[in-house]
Amino acid sequence: MTDYPHLLAPLDLGHVTLKNRVLMGSMHTGLEETKDWNRIAGFYAARARGGVGLIVTGGMAPNREGGVFPGAAGLFSAEDIANHQRVTDAVHAEGGRIAMQVLHAGRYAYSPECVAPSPVRSPISPFPPRELDEAGIEKQIADIATAAARAREAGYDGVEVMGSEGYLLNEFLVTRTNRRTDRWGGSYENRMRFPLEVMRRVRAAVGNDFIVIYRISMIDLVPDGSTFDEVLQLARAMEEAGASILNTGIGWHEARIPTIATSVPRAAFTWVTEKLMGHVSIPVITSNRINTPEVAETVLAEGKADMISMARPFLADPDFVKKAAEGHGDQIAPCIACNQACLDHTFSGKISTCLVNPRAAFETELVIEPAAEPKSIAIVGAGPAGLSAAITAAGRGHRVTLFEKSNRIGGQLDMAAEIPGKEEFRELIAWYRRMLKREEVELHLGHKADVDTLEGFDEIIVATGVRPRNPRIPVQKGANVLSYQQVLREKHPVGRRVAIIGAGGIGFDVAAFLVEPDHPTLHLEEWLREWGVTDPERARGGLAPEGPQPAPPARQVVMMQRKAEKPGRRLGKTTGWIHRATLRMKGVEMLSGVTYERITPQGVVLRIGEDAEPRLVPADTIVLCTGQESERTLAESLAAEGLQPHVIGGADQAAELDAKRAIDQGTRIASKL
Ligand code: NAP
Ligand code: SF4
Questions:
Q1: Which of 338, 427, 432 to mutate to test the pocket of ligand 2 (most atoms within 8 A of CB)?
Q2: Is 340 in the pocket of ligand 2 (CB under 6 A)?
Q3: How far is the CA of 352 from the centre of ligand 2 (A)?
Q4: Residue 355: nearest ligand to its CA?
Q5: Which CATH homologous superfamily contains domain 11-346?
Q6: What separation in angstroms does the CA of 673 have from each of 164, 264, 394, 457, 462?
Q7: For FRET with 416, which of 167, 338, 465, 548 sits at 20 to 30 Å CA-CA?
Q8: Measured between alpha carbons, how far is 376 from 398 in angstroms, rounded to an integer?
């Protein structure tokens, strides 16, 4: 008897039965653009082998103007079709099924050639779109239908027509972007015409024995979005026009409400999908921030959807479904929804991978094989670098001993887990703990390893991490100055008025910790209120008319940095705005271009820009978040003895250190020993 009877139940679609209720949602990994078809096929085949019911590919452009960026991949030639056939063959060989997403980006296309129902520029694009005329509209419909037909030719089991997130089909639906007065605009019947015509023509092009998913925007989260009645009307019409499944889309890309970041509560939007249940007779898929089989099972058991879409969790662990089905759900590497190695990479033009699993999309390059000759390996430091090295090396058959001077594992991850909105880090540490046990790593907590301890090991890995940088600002007697570690780890008391020196990732985290009296991520109602999300039946697009209602800040906080740039500019590409908005809502003041004079019992004395006179920023507590330096004492002692340890993580390089680099380095070094 499985723990996940709903999740693992087959789904009968008439002409085909999916083996379970798990869909791997579409992600743009950048792999298709590499044209390395071995690697692409390997990536999807690994997920099929892992047991997922249906895979949806990254979005494929139906034509040049509809590509997310110039040169975006699509099925444009016989060669493209043959290449995609290699992918579908590889997935089918593993017993999997795969659908291709057809994505017309509309005005979100990062190109001067972009098109839209009306010439209304998006706030997140520099390119004003060209308004489509009748012939242009017909061309877009025909091109989408052709892409679907070619997908069938390439051996796909279906297509997903992207109708949400503010892309072209979605743009036709709402007056925000559709100002037309012809038969494609005005009344809702007219605005619906384009997506419906697309669905009819796609169905006609692919025949009846082919899966056609429509990704419907259930809650736009932008002004002048759809009402829920309109969503219902569209859903029913889509069923009639030939859709086999409806998948949920939450929020446009330009929405200023987080929808998938780690600070979004788990399964935060399944209540929106649930509103559709019973109104259509085709299966309905829900998505967003579902990352464990337990959460997915509960959502299905509560009747909130017929199927679950998860995307990033399949980067973190391709074997998600297999492990759940075999009773090893606790071994699933958790996606912590950080976006650091997936979406942030996509938006920086890099191949997506995963912070937790550096092998994601690098399966053919980062190969982990049993060790030719088992060795005894000592690892010092149980932060992300040391932990990933330990489980990888032990998994390969080495005998691994892990020393950690504190009495808990996690290192910097352990501090991150204290931050409101970063609770998932706790799950990652818990997973590492389970994996250390499973891989029989000998763990010594509260053990400060020295040269003598490390004698006799075949290999030594030093992952001793970082120590906070002392900014060397003069401090007057009586000033209450704390390091971020004293605040987050040691829980030293902090006053009502706080000055944070340093506005990097940790400065932002500490500010969030100090202003947020609670963990709204763990309380859905509170979180929805904080961000101004309401029932789309109550207000268009689900935006609360009263706006965001954040709880009052627990403290008055000022952050400061010497650089003249906007604080937080270097935070994650897809999450930085969320951190900035969260602190803005809590009234956190941010100062740039400062020169520190001294810290006094009354606060921080500084100058801003060209100020002639220093000024006092009053504060009861001053927290130093001024970066880190490598902790290399042990590495240097070992070197002095003529030993050659492998130095990884923060101990190797402290600048811009993050868990992504630490885990990647730990995994790679252990794959070679
Ligand atoms: P960081 O990002 O390098 O920031 C250090 C801050 O301290 C900067 O604001 C810097 O600004 C200031 N600073 C540096 N030297 C100083 C000095 N001598 N005197 C006064 N101020 C000084 O380091 P971090 O905040 O410790 O973060 C460490 C790593 O973890 C980073 O890679 C970060 O991206 C990552 N992280 C990311 C997040 C996130 O994305 N949310 C969260 C936590 C950590 P000025 O030089 O302009 O004064
Ligand atoms: Fe999830 Fe972060 Fe990995 Fe992306 S990088 S898949 S968000 S854990």
A1: 338
A2: yes
A3: 9
A4: 2
A5: Aldolase class I (3.20.20.70)
A6: 47, 39, 11, 13, 14
A7: 548
A8: 6
What residue's CA is closest to ligand 2, atom 3?
A: 354
Least Cα distance to 575 among 105, 250, 259, 219 occurs for: 259
337 lines ligand 2 (CB under 6 A): yes
214 flagged as catalytic: no
Q: Is 332 in the pocket of ligand 2 (CB under 6 A)?
A: no
Q: How far apart are the first and last CA of the chain?
A: 40
Domain 470-517+552-626 fold: FAD/NAD(P)-binding domain (3.50.50)
Contact assessment for residue 483 and residue 468, using Cβ atoms and an 8 Å cutoff: yes
Give the helix ranges, DSSP H, for 454-536: 484-488, 505-515, 524-531
DSSP 8-state assignment for residue 553: P
CA 25–ligand 2 middle distance (angstroms): 14
Residue 187 identity (one-letter amino acid): S
Tell whether the model's pLDDT for residue 1 goes beyond 80. Answer: no
Looking at ligand 2, which residue's alpha carbon is closest to its atom 1? Answer: 335
pTM score, whole prediction: 0.96
For residue 670 and ligand 2, the question of a CB distance below 6 A is answered with no
- Assigned token pair, 224: 């002048």
Q: Kindly report the protein residue whose alpha carbon is nearest to atom 17 of ligand 1.
A: 471
| Range 376-467+629-672 has CATH code 3.40.50.720 | yes
**Separation of 86 CA from ligand 1 center, angstroms?**
45
Strands 628-630 and 466-468: antiparallel
pLDDT tens by residue, 40-68: 999 999 999 999 999 999 999 999 999 99
pLDDT of the residue at 517: 77
Q: Is the distance from the beta carbon of residue 572 to the nearest atom of ligand 1 less than 6 Å? A: yes
Mutate to test the pocket of ligand 2, among 260, 264, 315 (most ligand atoms within 8 A of CB): 315
Query: Of the listed 4, 167, 432, 484, which one is catalytic?
Result: 167
Ligand 1 centroid, distance to 595 Cα (angstroms): 16
Q: What is the chain's Cα-based Rg?
A: 26
For residue 98, the CA-to-ligand 2 centroid distance in Å is 22
Distance 655 CA to ligand 1 centre (A): 9
d(CA 524, CA 545): 19
For the chain, the domains span 11-346, 376-467+629-672, 470-517+552-626
Helix (H) or strand (E) holding 43: helix 37-49
Q: The tokens of 446 are what?
A: 């509260």
What angle (nearest 5°) sits at the alpha carbon of residue 232, between those of residues 226 and 236? 130
The ligand that comes nearest to the alpha carbon of residue 342 is 2
Token representation of residue 271: 């209540």
The closest ligand to the CA of 658 turns out to be 1
What confidence tier does 655 reach under pLDDT thresholds 50, 70, 90?
confident
Q: What does residue 365 show for φ and ψ, rounded to 5 degrees?
A: -100, -45
pLDDT in tens, 501-520: 999 999 999 999 999 978 88
Calculate mean pLDDT across residues 578-584.
96
CA–CA separation, 42 and 51 (whole Å): 15
Q: CATH topology of 11-346 equal to that of 376-467+629-672? A: no
598's enclosing H/E stretch is strand 594-600
